[in-house]
Design a protein that fits this description.
It is built from no helices and six strands. With 72 residues, it is mostly beta strands. The chain has a three-stranded antiparallel beta sheet, with no helix packed on it. Strands 4-5-6 form a three-stranded antiparallel beta sheet, with no helix packed on it. It starts with a strand and ends with a strand.
Length: 72
Amino acid sequence: MIFQNFNYNEDKQKIIYHLDNSQDSYAGEDRGIEKAECSHIEKKSNNEEQIIAYYISGCSNNEETLLMQVDK
């Protein structure tokens, strides 16, 4: 199981992101809990594949994480 949790900190105007894959049997050595403060959510579209993807970005861990993707 993988859990993702998002909270908005109004004082800091940041999105607090938690990823918990400690119960994921396929996680390997990367298993654990991660936390990051992020500044925004980005929408990206790919015309070739007809997909819209949403990413959380501007994070303290310098990573961009895919939240979800949908067909156009």
